[in-house]
């Protein structure tokens, strides 16, 4: 065989390979038209055993820490109520009309007000920083001085689950409109069932913004749904999308955990053990009657026969109101490369007041995520999915009707109807137990 013929054969084989890859990628993207292109490429690569390449690329893309300068807007996609603009009315002499002028906005120095001791933002207990900013269309200057801390708080555990969570103290003053103020974003029979808000949780990284949603786990029925890829397989009652009579009773839905190649832990649902549970791992557990909680397998959650679903996603970030992620130095928190990957992350926690809370925050590393959960009042918290538009929480309009529409709570999230159209990954959904038909979900 001549050299020219060998090169020709190699060229043909390479061309066939790339053509096959192009066809495969195109088919995958067309099957998931509502997901971002980059996210589709990553998912396709992971499905084809190229996860290590994706992990390294993500590390290169997300290795810049968040900006210190504070964000000037929040991420809550459902617009909060804002105070009316202050105005001044000037009364004129008879025969002249009254005029109303808006009072000029007072630019106040930005102050920090830490409410919890966190490792991401170490601070002297007797001092805080004031940042004074002057901004024009072309320049920005800042100076810093030291002033006393304005407020500290202590964590208490409630035995009665409140109807509404207490508003959160802003870590930065002045607070942005609606910052930390819980507002109802989903009602059932006129009663608020899901509350949401947004906040800048880390005073030393003011660009980081978190959006949260809370719900009383005793007032909803929680169920886990199984994606086409994670866990995959057939025969699921709760498949890749919410359908049938369950749609009428749907309240909200949110994303699940990591893909299995990241070794997140156990996965048990619908009487099947897809992956064996690991002792000491954080676990989102759902009882036989649909009440959810977050705990530690083998500690606060045990195999007592009361659990219908158990989804683990690595060890806990927060336990008993303390950051504990550093106790697991060998754990891969999503290929964090030594806490040096900063991206959009999600988590779920049981709060000290008994409410369940979903959190989406970015861009942060694993330590910042744990600190965010502390600031937000979590008792036990676990990481869920990360990157792109995988962090996701939606509520649904037209309760009680057969056709529903999703509304995401954070403007960084994706397709609001993802869990109605079909998901490649597992997810959780909340239903109204009073109207949910028997056997509609498992």
TrEMBL record:
Residues 81-102 are annotated as: Disordered. Residues 251-385 form the Phosphodiester glycosidase domain. InterPro entries: NAGPA (IPR018711). This is Phosphodiester glycosidase domain-containing protein. It comes from freshwater metagenome.
């Amino acid at each position: 065989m001549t050299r020219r013929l060998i090169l020709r054969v190699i060229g043909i084989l390479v061309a066939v390979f790339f053509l096959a890859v192009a066809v495969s990628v195109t088919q995958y993207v067309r099957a998931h038209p509502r997901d971002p292109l980059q996210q589709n490429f990553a998912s396709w690569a992971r499905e084809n055993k190229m996860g290590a390449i994706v992990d390294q690329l993500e590390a290169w893309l997300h290795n810049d820490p968040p900006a210190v300068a504070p964000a000037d807007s929040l991420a809550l996609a459902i617009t909060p109520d804002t105070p009316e603009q202050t105005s001044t009315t000037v009364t004129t002499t008879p025969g002249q009309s009254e005029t109303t002028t808006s009072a000029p906005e007072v630019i106040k120095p930005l102050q920090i007000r830490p409410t919890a001791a966190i490792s991401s933002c170490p601070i002297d207990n007797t001092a805080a920083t004031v940042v004074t900013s002057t901004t024009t269309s072309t320049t920005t200057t800042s100076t810093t001085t030291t002033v006393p801390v304005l407020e500290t708080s202590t964590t208490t555990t409630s035995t009665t689950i409140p109807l509404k969570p207490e508003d959160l103290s802003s870590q930065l003053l002045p607070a942005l409109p609606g910052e930390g103020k819980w507002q109802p974003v989903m009602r059932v029979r006129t009663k608020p069932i899901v509350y949401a808000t947004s906040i800048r949780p880390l005073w030393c990284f003011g660009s980081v913004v978190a959006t949260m949603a809370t719900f009383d786990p005793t007032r909803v029925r929680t169920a886990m749904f199984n994606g086409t890829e994670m866990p995959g397989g057939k025969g699921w009652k709760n498949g890749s999308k919410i359908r049938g009579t369950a749609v009428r009773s749907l309240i909200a839905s949110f994303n699940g955990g990591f893909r299995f190649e990241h070794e997140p832990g156990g996965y048990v649902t619908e009487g099947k053990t897809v992956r064996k549970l690991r002792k000491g791992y954080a676990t989102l557990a759902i009882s036989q009657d649909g009440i959810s909680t977050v705990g530690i397998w083998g500690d606060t959650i045990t195999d007592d026969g009361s659990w219908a679903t158990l989804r683990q996603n690595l060890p806990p970030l927060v336990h008993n109101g303390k950051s504990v992620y550093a106790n697991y130095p060998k754990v891969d928190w999503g290929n964090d490369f030594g806490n040096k990957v900063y991206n959009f992350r999600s988590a779920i926690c049981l709060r000290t007041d008994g409410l369940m809370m979903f959190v989406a925050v970015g861009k942060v590393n694993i330590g910042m995520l744990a600190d965010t959960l502390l600031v937000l009042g979590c008792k036990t918290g676990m990481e869920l999915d990360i990157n792109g538009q995988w962090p996701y929480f939606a509520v649904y309009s037209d309760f009680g009707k057969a056709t529903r529409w999703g509304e995401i709570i954070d403007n960084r999230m994706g397709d609001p109807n993802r869990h109605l159209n079909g998901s490649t990954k597992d997810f959780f959904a909340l239903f109204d137990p009073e109207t949910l038909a028997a056997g509609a979900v498992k």
